[in-house]
Design a protein that fits this description.
The chain has about 325 residues and is mainly beta. It has one helix at about 1-15; strands spanning about 55-60, 65, 75-80, 85-95, 100-105, 110-115, 115, 120, 120-125, 145, 150-155, 165, 170-180, 185-195, 195-205, 205, 210, 215, 235-240, 250, 260-265, 270, 275-280, 280-290, 295-300, 300, 305, 310. Helix content is about 5%, strand content about 40%.
Length: about 325
């Protein structure tokens, strides 16, 4: 009986070890959630921009940042706590759902948002109705003009605008825009050299009896006539005078292109040594600077803006 019992026990163990695959159970895997990645949104569209023109004067609402780029990520370069009148210089440019305009005037220029329908930050400025100007000079856009006297180059065509630089007498500058009538005077936009580069600004042309700008003479009319010269005989004495802050230039010959011997400031006295010569639209006198070993040619200026303050020869007239 013992062998049979042992065989039965062995069979029972084999049955227990052999388990059908279908009877086995496994843990249910945790479901992985589906993640939906949204598509990158397109640039927000802008409303129809306001009808501003380059050069137009506009009023900016206070509290709007002025940025170096037409974008909300641009650096802030200016900020006004009060309403201010500026001038449009570029635009519009659509970014971040806003129309942007580049403005200039007070402080650093930059880009501002115009706002949106129902809440605009820019509005047209009232027209300048208090300025009445003479007929402007016949300057050519893209051409050049000569500075008869030293002039201030301003950021905008306005006598109160920031001065960018001061140009000296006889400089030639490129005309790129204008004229604009403001402060009862015509203004021209020019491009001038400054610190090794070129900058753009506005210069006033002056008045009919005292122009500060002059168009170059046509090639067929290089022989420019002069007004009647002051009656200053040899031996007469005068002193340098001017009101534009720019010294007059003593030159080696009676010509605007002649070598400059020395700049002469206000009240420097000199003696006439010869007869006047007409050149480049000016009467030039040969002079000797009193108290200094300097001799050369000096332009007398023009009627209404003479650069000679007569000391002797009281009969001298224009």
């Amino acid at each position: 009986m013992r062998p049979m019992l042992a065989l039965f026990t062995l069979l029972a163990l084999l049955v227990a070890l052999i388990v059908p695959a279908a009877a086995q159970t496994f843990p249910t895997p945790t479901p992985v959630p589906t993640v939906l990645i949204p598509a990158t949104p397109t640039e927000a569209a802008c409303a129809e921009p306001l009808l501003f023109a380059i050069g137009q004067r506009v009023v900016l609402t206070p509290g709007v940042n002025v940025r170096n780029l037409p974008s909300l990520s641009g650096g802030v370069v200016n900020y006004y706590t009060e309403e201010v009148v500026l001038r449009i210089t570029d635009g519009p440019s659509c970014a971040n759902g806003y129309n942007w305009w580049r403005v200039a005037g007070v402080g650093n220029p930059g880009w501002v948002v115009e706002g949106r329908p129902g809440r605009y930050f820019l509005a047209p400025a009232a027209p300048l109705v208090d300025s009445v100007c003479f007929e402007p000079l016949n300057l050519t856009i893209g051409g050049t003009t000569r500075l008869i006297t030293g002039v201030r180059v301003r950021e905008n065509p306005d006598a109160r605008a920031r001065v960018l630089t001061v140009m000296l007498i006889d400089e030639m500058v490129n005309v790129i825009g204008g004229p604009v009538c403001a402060n009862d005077i015509n203004w021209w936009q020019v491009r001038v050299p400054f610190d090794g580069t070129l900058i753009e600004g506005w210069v006033a042309e002056g008045f009919p009896d005292n122009y500060w700008l002059e168009a170059p003479a046509p090639a067929a009319a290089q022989a420019v006539s002069c007004a009647r010269a002051l009656r200053l005989p040899p031996g007469a004495r005068a002193a340098v005078t001017y009101s534009d802050g720019v010294p007059r230039r003593l030159r080696a010959a009676p010509s605007l292109s002649a070598e400059v011997i020395a700049p002469l400031i206000n009240n420097v006295a000199f003696e006439i040594t010869g007869a006047p010569v007409c050149a480049d639209g000016y009467n030039w006198f040969p002079v000797r600077v009193l108290g200094a070993d300097l001799s050369g040619w000096l332009a007398e200026g023009r009627p209404g803006n003479y650069w000679f303050n007569i000391i002797s020869e009281t009969d001298a007239v224009g």
